[in-house]
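Practice problem 4.
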């Protein structure tokens, strides 16, 4: 009787699998979690918000473990709701909770089910208008990605299960389903089935669930670190694909970027395991798919289950009377079409736009056709299934390995189409196969190597499969607490935690230490950095790929961040420059006013004639030199000029004028024409401000003028294009590919032209390297670029470490805009000032001599 009362009150007795306490296992799990927390902190996984929520989850797990079964779901909901104000703040959190409760209330109104669905649709339309800013102006934009992640798909599943009476029981469990603890950190969230959320809650022995969660969190961290390696070191732009090896690297690296999604999903489901939700795995060795239907079953399993449950099976069973093959074909095609549209729907809630891109349609359409063909073939030939012990070194294994490589190659190729800017770019990339006679041999060698690698991986996987079968039959095993598995995971967790510590990795050689340091923070790859820079001035960047960090940068960016009011910043020209700043204008931006003088410079007024007794400097550069993002008085040009003149007044020296010829969006080659404009003002010195990726940006502009058939006044550039076999009718990507071998001589010509033209006029050429605020691979080319400038005859000022003493967040303009802010401009001005006044005879001619300063 007493046991019965306790059972009714607590939900289970202490002997139940959900209530058994094992202190040793608890501390084993907790120890691993603490080490994982250290790894998350040291490697800066995702964001500070995730670190906070993960810490909350670990602390919450310690309380959750000792609570009676019946109280645990309430505690999980408390933790989930508490995470919202921690990340979003109280106002946003309360707004999100209120909207969520309203939607949940509508789902359970005592009216006909179809009316409830209609009301949900009407509420969704209202929220969509609020997301677009049409109504509800007081709602903060920060809540929309999280709200969408919680409700955009989960409501569909919930309504489906509600109709079939399979939703979680009790208001607490239902709220917990929508406000899941890690959701506030992950706008990309697996579509968790509400029936599984209810049915699998403590469906296994509790310690097995917890340790499985630890294993999956560990696996998620490994995936994310592998993703960073691929993203930072292996990704290349289509324009950099010159030969077959580059092509294979592009194809494989782009597909491997999906590691980020699988890593995040493992983290999410792993954390939910810590609170008793024994949910299934989200991905299953999707790189080893042996058919296209197998790929669909293995990758993003939750999405596949969602689409099959809500759309495929209802459509299939309605059409089955017309024939099984017809039902499969129609159902599959409709599912993939809906997948395409629903991904755009997801992007709307995350970013506020509803993109319908041909790349998306092509990707999902081709994949749908391949899956349909594969499905029909499987039905007609019979799909083999076996639970018997598998021998890896057999004819069957060899054939399967070849199939895996072929499917992997096809998926990589299809994935590359999805990520390219245009069909022209994609086709031009494939033209690399015909440029070298050994291309086909190289591709064959790589595919053979992949087949051998797959065979070895299959051997390992087969061994693990056979071991699991033995565990099922009782010959071995204690699940995740089996000694070998537990020890291997503990060692892996300890390794992750220790490798992120500076006290450990700094003891390695410099190359290894720098490699580990690069993995400890999230940043954009050089390819995405180039896209971001291009996107500052042109609406050419497709960033809605969920496997790239670039889309997250843009997701945080207001749609009107480059908007200006007033007369406009620039006007177009019919020459090599293509555009310039509008003269005598004033425009208002989000960050302040941008004013130009009568000569179209962002500067105060100057006479064209050189004033007597004044040392005049002309600045050549792009947006950071022009001063995008700061007020007119906050540019380093204005600060430096004021500082030099204040110094000159104190010392009784001649005045200094700094004329800012920089224009946002200018590439290095454009500075050759700007130089002639600057000479009209009779400068004493030309300060050429270089930035990262000078070689690539020079080639990029030559490609642009060739593609646009812009008049080219420089015979060398015309001759170089002819030598490279380039013409205006070629795709842009192919032009860039053909320019790759000529990038060095292109920049050499530019630097020598500027330096020699300055020497002819008695003007001092000074090359100043101004780094980008965000660190990246461009650093590797700085020394080479500096040597190129010195050889050409420039005096050198290298500001590579000008921001080194400050976190990037303190010197960048915004989280999505990597131009320097006002502090950044002050740092640049101070460094240049110190350099100039310390050696005036070198950088300022004879105007300021060391004797005068003393």
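Answer key:
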């Amino acid at each position: 009787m007493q046991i019965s009362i306790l059972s009714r009150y607590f939900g289970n007795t202490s002997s139940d699998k959900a209530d058994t306490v094992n202190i040793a296992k608890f501390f084993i799990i907790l120890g691993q979690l603490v080490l994982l927390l250290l790894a998350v902190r040291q490697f800066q996984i995702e964001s500070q918000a995730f670190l906070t929520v993960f810490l909350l989850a670990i602390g919450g797990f310690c309380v959750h473990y000792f609570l009676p079964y019946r109280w645990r779901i309430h505690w999980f909901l408390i933790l989930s709701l508490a995470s919202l104000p921690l990340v979003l703040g109280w106002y946003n959190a309360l707004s999100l909770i209120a909207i969520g409760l309203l939607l949940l209330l509508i789902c359970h109104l005592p009216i006909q089910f179809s009316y409830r669905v209609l009301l949900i649709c009407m509420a969704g339309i209202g929220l969509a208008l609020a997301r677009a800013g049409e109504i509800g102006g007081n709602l903060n934009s920060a809540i929309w990605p999280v709200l969408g992640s919680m409700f955009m798909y989960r409501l569909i599943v919930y309504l489906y299960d509600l109709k079939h009476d399979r939703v979680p029981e009790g208001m607490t469990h239902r709220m917990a389903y929508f406000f899941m603890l890690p959701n506030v950190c992950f706008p990309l969230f697996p579509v968790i089935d509400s029936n599984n959320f209810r049915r699998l809650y403590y469906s296994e022995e509790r310690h097995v669930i917890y340790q499985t969660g630890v294993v999956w969190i560990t696996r998620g961290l490994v995936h994310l670190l592998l993703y960073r390696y691929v993203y930072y070191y292996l990704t290349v732009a289509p324009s950099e694909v010159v030969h077959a090896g580059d092509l294979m690297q592009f194809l494989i690296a782009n597909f491997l970027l999906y590691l980020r999604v699988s890593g995040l999903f493992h983290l999410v489901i792993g954390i939910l395991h810590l609170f008793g939700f024994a949910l299934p795995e989200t991905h299953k060795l999707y790189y080893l798919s042996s058919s296209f239907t197998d790929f669909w079953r293995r990758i993003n399993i939750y999405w596949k289950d969602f689409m099959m449950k809500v759309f495929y099976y209802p459509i299939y069973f309605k059409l089955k009377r017309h024939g099984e093959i017809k039902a499969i074909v129609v159902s599959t095609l409709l599912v993939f079409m809906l997948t395409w549209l629903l991904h755009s729907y997801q992007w709307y809630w995350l970013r506020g736009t509803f993109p319908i891109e041909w790349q998306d349609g092509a990707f999902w359409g081709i994949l749908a056709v391949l899956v349909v063909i594969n499905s029909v073939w499987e039905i007609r030939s019979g799909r083999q299934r076996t639970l018997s012990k598998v021998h890896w070194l057999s004819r069957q294994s060899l054939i399967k390995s070849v199939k895996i490589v072929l499917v992997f190659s096809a998926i990589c190729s299809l994935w590359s189409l999805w990520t390219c800017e245009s069909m022209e770019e994609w086709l031009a990339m494939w033209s690399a196969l015909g440029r070298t006679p050994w291309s086909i041999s190289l591709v064959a060698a790589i595919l053979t190597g992949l087949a051998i690698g797959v065979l070895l991986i299959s051997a390992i996987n087969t061994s693990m499969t056979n071991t699991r079968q033995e565990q099922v039959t009782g010959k071995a095993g204690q699940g995740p607490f089996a000694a070998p598995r537990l020890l291997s995971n503990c060692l892996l967790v300890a390794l992750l935690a220790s490798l992120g510590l500076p006290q450990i990795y700094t003891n390695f050689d410099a190359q290894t230490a720098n490699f580990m340091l690069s993995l400890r923070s999230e940043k954009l790859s050089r390819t995405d950095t180039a896209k971001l820079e291009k996107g500052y001035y042109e609406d050419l960047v497709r960033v809605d790929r969920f496997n790239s960090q670039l889309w997250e940068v843009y997701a945080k960016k207001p749609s009107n961040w480059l908007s200006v009011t007033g007369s406009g910043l620039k006007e177009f020209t019919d020459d090599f420059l293509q555009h310039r700043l509008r003269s005598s204008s004033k425009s208002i931006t989000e960050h302040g006013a941008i004013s130009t003088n009568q000569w179209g410079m962002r500067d105060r007024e100057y006479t064209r004639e050189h004033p007597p007794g004044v040392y005049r400097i002309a600045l050549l550069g792009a947006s950071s030199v022009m001063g995008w993002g700061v007020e007119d008085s906050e540019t380093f040009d204005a600060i430096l000029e004021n500082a030099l003149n204040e110094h000159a007044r104190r010392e009784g020296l001649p005045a200094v004028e700094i004329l800012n010829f920089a224009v946002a969006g200018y590439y290095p080659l454009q500075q050759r024409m700007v130089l002639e404009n600057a000479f009209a003002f009779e400068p004493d010195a030309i300060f050429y401000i270089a930035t990262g990726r000078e070689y690539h940006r020079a080639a990029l502009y030559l490609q642009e003028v060739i593609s646009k058939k812009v008049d080219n006044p420089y015979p060398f550039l015309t001759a170089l294009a002819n030598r490279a076999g380039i013409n205006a009718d070629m795709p842009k990507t192919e032009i860039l590919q053909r320019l790759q071998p000529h990038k060095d001589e292109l920049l050499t010509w530019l630097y020598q032209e500027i330096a020699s033209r300055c020497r002819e006029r008695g003007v001092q050429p000074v090359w100043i390297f101004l780094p980008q605020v965000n660190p990246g691979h461009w650093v590797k080319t700085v020394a080479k670029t500096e040597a190129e400038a010195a050889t050409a005859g420039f005096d050198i000022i290298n500001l590579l470490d000008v921001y080194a003493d400050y976190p990037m967040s303190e010197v960048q303009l915004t989280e999505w805009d990597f131009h320097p802010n006002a502090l950044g401009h002050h740092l640049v001005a101070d460094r240049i000032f110190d350099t100039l006044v310390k050696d005036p005879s070198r950088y300022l001619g004879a105007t300021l001599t060391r004797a005068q300063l003393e």
